[in-house]
Amino acid sequence: MSGLDFQGLGGSGKLVNVMPWVEEEPELSNEAVILDVLCATQTGDTLYALPTEFEIRAFVSENGDYPLSDTPMSWEAFFEETKDYERSGLVTDTTDLDIFMERFCAREEAFINEAGGIEALDSPGMAALLEQSRQWSKEGLCASYGEDAPEDAPLYSTFTMTIGWLANVLFQSPRMSNLPVEGYCYLRPSDDETDLIGSNVVLDELFAINAASGKQGASWEFIKYLLGNYSRFFIDVEMPVNRHAFLTSVVTESTIGNPNLDEELARSGVEDFMSRINGAFYEKPVYGIVRDAAAGFYSGEYTAEQAAKIMSENVSAYFSN
Question: Model-level pTM?
Answer without folding.
Answer: 0.85
